[in-house]
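Researcher: I'm comparing several assemblies side by side, and this is the next one on my list. It has 645 residues spread over two chains. Same procedure as the others: predict the full complex and return the structure.
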Amino acid sequence: MSAALSRPLKRSDGRIDKSFLLVVFACVAIVLGASFVSPGVLSLGYLLQQLQIAAIVGILATGAMLVILLGQIDLSVPLTITSAAILSTSLAGSGNAALATLAIPAGLLGGLGVGAINGLGVAIFRIPAMVWTLAVNAMLLGITVFYTGGFKPHGAPPPLAVFFGHDRILGVPNAFLLWLAIGAITLFVLKRTVFGAYIYALGQSPRALFLAGAPVERVIVGVFALAGLLSSVGGLLLVGYANQAYQGMGDSYLMPVIAAVVLGGTSILGGSGSYAGTFVGAIFITLLSSVLSLMQVQDAIRQIVFGGIILLMLLVHNRGKFSP
Amino acid sequence: MRASAKLKISPTAISALLLAILFVLYIGIHPRGLSVYVLTIWSNQGTLLALAAIAQFFVVLVRGIDLSVGPMIALTNVAASYMVSGAPAHVAAGVVAALGVGIACGLINGAAVVVGGVPPIVATLALGSVYSGLGLLLRPTPGGQIDDALSDALTYDVHGAPTSLILIVVVLAALFVPLQRTRFGLSLYAIGSSRDAAAMSGVRVSLVTLSAYALAGLFAALAGLYVSMVTLTGDPNIGPAYTLNSIAAVVIGGVALSGGVGSPLGAVLGAFILKTISGLMFFSGLPPLAQPFFEGAILAIAIMLGALGMLRVRSRLERFA
């Protein structure tokens, strides 16, 4: 038990870890490198724009990180995003004032519910998260296809989603401010609460945590539910940003989000990782994909460079850490 | 960790029974009934996923996961659309070259995991992105050509037995002895059960793990080639569905994601179960828009059936292995 909990106690030792520095360095390198080709990259406007997109990736990555800390994975992120977005926009655009006010709460509750279903399958039925969340994703896809009839869903973006996803205060994107708030809460939960300690301990040894008398199943369900909630927040921000919901809107986020978490130094095996790492990881992934599209390289090259750089960074800071 | 000593039915037998029931249902509702044509189409579709599932099986067996199965299939399919046509000698060389592409991808995956020390899930995720980029670079839109004669020979039937079904049986038979009776095969299972114990017993863990990834590449290439035979073109976008379905197939077929448990037969049965479910949906008379939901729901139920044993475990501690 003490062995399992000794790592989380080191959570707040204030040491800046290597992967954090590596990612920060990579962020600076990528911006400076791109500025030789197009100087506009160094402008405040461009960088703030990146923070707005990074906020969406970052909030999604927050949920993914919590699940990965358990040593699990959530592959239902794409359709959790899409279904929360479609549910919310169709309520907001229904023309009924009462339903419209329910748009945001319903979207968030939907995400929470999907997350809870993920968690129940993993915690109670002990189904590997990788296949259970995949099955949940498939069912959600079925529901959204059935609901929209395969067409572009009708509806309007809820005003609150536009406020957070699109608007700015004094030039600073509200999405970024929301991310800072969510990040601060996550940091507090992970570092200062028993629930946070349970999350790390579960990733190290579920057996030890169970023997220590912790409500293991409830922690697993809780973390998956939180992750679902955060995915739906990301989905609603996307609605505000793009001013619409559409089928397939979440599909391109799964891989970058996992990459952001892992590049930030969170172990994919669970039990260790810092939120600061995830924070810079999300910014790096956003910058990388933005700079690649700025260079107007074709999609094929983008995918190759994207995968290659992620692998390269993992090789640099994972050397010897993992044995198959 | 056994649920109970009295009742032990092998997961493979359950999968086989499930497939038999689904198959009877499928033939029952198929408008054309049981015919060589229907059987051949069913078998061809199943074989595509079965080869992908065998690829996934080898990596899962050594406690890994390969998220680049789909991209490798797409890349070899695209490569084949350039190379598998023309004179017979050229066709043969093309097939070998396409298999080589798959093995090379598998070796790179294995090297990233074994030598580079990157966890399989992220290593194959990143490399999968590279492979699908390469496929897209080679052929931005579907096209190219595949040798007709070879395609005809592999996708029809031999005296009423679908060629693809014969191929799968041959593959399973060819894998049986190496996996069950040789040092290499037992090493694969040993690494999946306990890497440390395997290493201490003198298993060359790194080399065997690397070989498992290379074998995954080989079978992904076989799947890619068979896609070429069925579709007669190279399509860079076919990958994603194969990655996820190959994982679902091995799980349904009783291969443990925690490694060391399962067989290629299980993986193949899982793949055919999934494909038969899709086929059932197609002819079920359900509104087309409702089919994806039921497909997902049946996938979920099939996975939960496999998990039911867990609920019988009395000691809660036993659940947290």
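Model: For your comparison table: Strands of chain B lie at 157-158, 161-162.
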